[in-house]
Amino acid sequence: MMRWLGNVVGPIGRVVGVDRNTSHLRHLSDSRFQIIEGDFLEISLDAAFNLAHCRYVFIHNRGAAQMLTKLAQVLKPRGFLVVEEPDFTSAKLLNRRGDVSQQRVNNAICRMFEDRVLDPAHGLSLPEKVAAEGLDIVEC
Ligand SMILES: C[S@@+](CC[C@H](N)C(=O)[O-])C[C@H]1O[C@@H](n2cnc3c(N)ncnc32)[C@H](O)[C@@H]1O
């Protein structure tokens, strides 16, 4: 995603990547990329962004509501937020209905999140949370 965004913004644009573990981002050494290692809720971002993107991150965080608020705050007016979050409670393998082993794996994933007091169906409640931030939903 960062590489793709880097191509979109071009040589004078800027793409900032944030992760607690940036080992998969370190190869992006071009000057358009800025890599910040740390907890998203603890770092400071001074820039106003045209686009913010986040995938499979909220579901791992009890502070997901604050993360969404902070993401919305770093956008420019009329900026776009793209959030991709799963719902493991309804995930199914394509063309393999009734696959028992797949269902066991999915159940184990759900239990892992629940044991950590996290919501395995986080994606289902995302639209209402995004709307509660005062953002217009363009597509869901
Ligand atoms: C399931 S991976 C998803 C990685 C990538 N976004 C993707 O879609 O392939 C979750 C990532 O979020 C990072 N992460 C989770 N909570 C975070 C937080 N509070 N602040 C920064 N990074 C976080 C983890 O270190 C991990 O790299």
Structure characterization notes:
The protein has 140 residues and is of the alpha/beta class. The chain has a single domain (2-87, 121-132), classed as Vaccinia Virus protein VP39 (Rossmann fold). Helix content is 32%, strand content 19%. It contains four helices and four strands. The protein has helices spanning 2-9, 64-73, 100-115, 122-132, and strands at residues 15-19, 33-37, 49-55, 75-84. The protein has a two-stranded parallel ribbon. It has a two-stranded parallel ribbon with strand order 3-4. The longest helix is centred in the C-terminal third of the chain and has 16 residues, at 100-115. The radius of gyration is 17 Å and the shape is globular. The mean pLDDT is 93. Bound molecules: S-adenosylmethionine.
Features:
two-stranded parallel sheet, binds S-adenosylmethionine, globular, 4 helices, 4 strands, alpha/beta, Rossmann fold, 140 residues
CATH superfamily: Vaccinia Virus protein VP39
Largest sheet entry: 2 strands, parallel
Radius of gyration: 17 Å
The tally of structural domains comes to 1
- The counted number of beta strands is 4
Structural class estimated from helices and strands: alpha/beta
- The coarse silhouette is globular
How do the strands of the widest beta sheet line up side by side?
1-2
- Please tell me the overall pLDDT: 93
Strand and helix layout:
Blueprint: H1 2-9, E1 15-19, E2 33-37, E3 49-55, H2 64-73, E4 75-84, H3 100-115, H4 122-132
Bound molecules: S-adenosylmethionine.
